Amino acid sequence: MSFTKLTGQETAVRLLKDDLDSGRIHHAYLFTGIKGVGKRTLALDFARALFCQRQDGEACGTCLSCRKIEHSNHPDLSIINITEGDSIKIEQIRELQRGLAFRPYEGKWKLYIIEDADRMTPEAANSLLKTLEEPPHYGVIILLAREAETLLPTIVSRCHLIQLNPLSVENIEKILLEAGYEDSEKIKLAAALAGGSPGEAKRLIEDEDFFTEREKLYEFLYNLPELTEVDVFQFVDELLTLLRNKEAFPFFNLILNWYRDIILYRMDSHADLVNSDYIALYSKISEKYSVEELISIIELVNNIKRYIDSNVKEDLALQVMFLKIRTKRVK
Amino acid sequence: MQENGFFYRSLNGENLFPGKGRKSKMAFLSLYRKYRPRTFEDLAGQQHVVRTLQNALKQNRIAHAYLFAGPRGTGKTSTARLFAQALNCVKGPTVEPCGECDSCRSIISGQSVDVIEIDAASNRGIDEIRDLREKVKFYPTEGKYKVYIIDEVHMLTKGAFNALLKTLEEPPSNVVFILATTEAHKVLDTILSRCQRFDFTLLSSEDIIQRLEYICQQEKVNYEREALSLITSASMGGLRDAISLLDQAITYTDGNLNREAVQEMLGKVDLSFLGSFMERVLARDTAAILKMTGEIIDSGKSISVFVQDLINFLHQVMLYKECGRDPAIFNLTEEMYSRLEEVAGGVDTARLIRFLDILTDVERQLTFSEQPRIILELGLIKMTARTEENQLAELENRLRELEEKVEQLSRGNLSLAAASRPVAGGTTTGRSSTISKETAHIEEDTSAYKPEVPGDSGAQQEAGEEAALAYGVEDIRDKYWKEILKRIRENDFKVYALLADAVPFSIEGNRLYIQVLAQFHKNNAEKQADFIKRIIYQVCNYNFEPVFFVEGEMPEKKTGPVNDSKAVKPASKGNPVQETAVDRVVKAFNGKIIKVDYDVLKDKESEQGV
């Protein structure tokens, strides 16, 4: 069992394989890429190949080490992720440092994978600096993060960077088909909506409610200019439950895509539309908005999203947002 | 306190545990660790620091506390270790530590008992500092100095900082503290004042390239100088970043550093692509731009790198436009010059600055957006869409207004409404004659820009009140009312609320009849009549007298002389016939008019009419 075939990430896989083959194992790696693009898969593949008892740069999948990783009970592999709240705390990094002080139990390496490294608290990130720069010779640390810019520059400069790219729509479609999903409109749509992340695309297909909720949302946006205040309030109430489950329903992204598509439609870039199934509706409403209005609507949505992320009351923010869009008094 | 941390054992790249390394070869070390400077000469840049420290060593003026501050990858920790070596070398204190004696070797491998490196970010509490204070008083075991290197010192807690103060001020002899940090502003003033401070600066590209070349030669890697300069500019002046990137590039290109491959690794966009992209932007070909953007993204390039590339490119275009082909600024090939020239020819500096504004804003937003693509597209659309023309048009409008005011000033016939701002009235009339000569030609120029606005040419002033006839009430309602409301809103929201549902109804001479929603609105609007009048004047450039009425109760037109431009309130200076009668009553009783009941007046008039 070699590296998982990660379509679209051939470069990243090649770089890591080269490192394994030539024995140039760096002490700190930083894998960057959007959610669902394969960072964790790649990190685990790397771990398998690193620990595998056959030591030929690939994982055999049958030896004890490989099987232990499969069952996630390899003593020399630790995965650090967010366990409480929404950040990685300094205590977790201290634990890493304590653990790293001991030599590996089985193999030659001791590997730590830090997921969501961009969500480390400033204290945690700073306390990692010295360890990250000069761990013991057997220590390897892999950080997984969305983008290098979201980390401290002092962290980034200590790491060997491996970038995982967002995938093109075609590649995602290909992955979905290979994964055994049936070729259908739904697949195409999910690939377009996933924003370059095959993991996200799969999730969308699996999610039964997603497409009906999306339809509801877009129907609302389409009718918004004609709706009354009461309609808006009612819809916001319905939305709140969806919004609380942000991971499952990328609410703001859908709204952003809607208005982005209208702009693109007006610019005659029909091929790049995300919601290609709504093209008929776009033709009807695109004339109702000027490009400037659309730009300021998108900016408004972005801002409201930031407000809600920083704990502004959700229903209020949403009501204001929709009412503003409705009357086009966006500025 | 975790002293002499476990993590420095393999610092010098030696395999301290033979047989344990992968394939039993020498353990692999990342280049930036392998090529940590071993002598002061090795240290890239920072001459000002090195010279001062070496002089201190020479003259044996060793301070007890140093603070090394500066951005990442500029050599703070390396210098601290070198300084420790220099102090404790067998030949020491010496300007050039030998690197071979036991003391130097143990410091390099991080095993020296007398050089204690503390990770202040992990050991940041007061307890750790107390522990340190306990141990400070012991005499150095092997060397002459006990050196405490406290790295990332900005992360110490406030309590810990304060606990350190006394020790830092007067440590036992033979103890040297070296504090290192990237964020000196977080360090307490009381700490700062006890240390000799050295500021490390970002390295020049020349320094970085030299070091990279040296490493490439040592590692026996083929390289193109251009590839190294790409890496250098991506490293933003941090040597560790540069060496990390070099490390990546060596793997990526399999030990053959050429420009194309490094460019690909960095996710940089080709210059020719940037050139044709900007061409499309300048041609406002939005569809093509969006298509090209899609291609960039689909080819797996990072959006933020692309934005940075665009910014850099435009920056160079701007410099080229302003300074021409100046070798002191540019270090470019012929091909690049011709690209810059092409783009620079088709754009003015103001627009370039606007582009840069938009793109830097995009760059900022990218860091906290999950939809980088939309942010980028939006920015590009802003650059190409005709919106900026609108802004220009708006500017033109305002300019025109200004010109008109100047023109009026020069004629000295600034109306009462405008004169309600004291500055405009009193002080300028005296100078008006001189201005008029200068502004005479402006009038001619501006008339070309304003074909649609009635009443704004010189004709209005000459024709006096009659010019009002140039306005139909439809003009007011359709063209100006919106603007009037907008301005009122900007000035006074309460007044706006009164007029939000109002409709200009008709014009009689200089009176503008405005129908409002209810009696309340009417009463309050009348109180603000002067203000409203002023706004109307600003927009229509004509001294209308606003008259408010509630629907179905339009005051009879005869109630006031319509051509009396100074009639401000019909209630006080109404119909001349009644005025005399009422005046007489007022005089006789020495009273004042509180209220005029128009209904009664109307009834009277209709009776008379019969």
Brief overview:
The complex is a heterodimer of chains A (331) and B (610). By secondary structure, chain A is an alpha/beta fold.
Q: Can you describe this structure?
A:
The complex is a heterodimer of chains A (331) and B (610). In chain A, helix 7 (169-178) crosses helix 8 (185-193). In chain A, strand 2, helix 4 (90-100) and strand 3 form a beta-alpha-beta unit. The longest helix of chain A has 19 residues, at 291-309. The mean pLDDT of chain A is 86. Chain A is elongated, with a radius of gyration of 23 Å. With 331 residues, chain A is an alpha/beta fold. Chain A has a five-stranded parallel sheet, sandwiched between helices. Chain A has helices spanning 10-22, 39-51, 64-70, 90-100, 122-133, 153-156, 169-178, 185-193, 198-206, 208-223, 229-244, 251-266, 279-285, 291-309, 314-327; strands at 28-32, 77-80, 110-114, 139-145, 160-163. Chain A has three domains: 10-163, P-loop containing nucleotide triphosphate hydrolases (Rossmann fold), CATH 3.40.50; 168-206; 207-327, Zinc Finger, Delta Prime, domain 3. Chain A contains 15 helices and five strands. Chain B is elongated, with a radius of gyration of 40 Å. Chain B has 610 residues and is an alpha/beta fold. The longest helix of chain B is centred in the middle third of the chain and has 25 residues, at 387-411. The N and C termini of chain B lie far apart (110 Å). In chain B, the strands form three sheets. Chain B has a five-stranded parallel sheet, with helices on one face. In chain B, strands 8-9-10 form a three-stranded mixed sheet. Chain B folds into five domains: 6-199, P-loop containing nucleotide triphosphate hydrolases (Rossmann fold, 3-Layer(aba) Sandwich), CATH 3.40.50; 205-255, no CATH class; 271-385, Zinc Finger, Delta Prime, domain 3, CATH 1.20.272.10; 390-451, no CATH class; 470-573, GMP Synthetase, Chain A, domain 3 (2-Layer Sandwich). Mean pLDDT of chain B is 78; it is low at 1-25, 416-468 and 558-578. The relative contact order of chain B is 0.05. Helix content of chain B is 54%, strand content 8%.
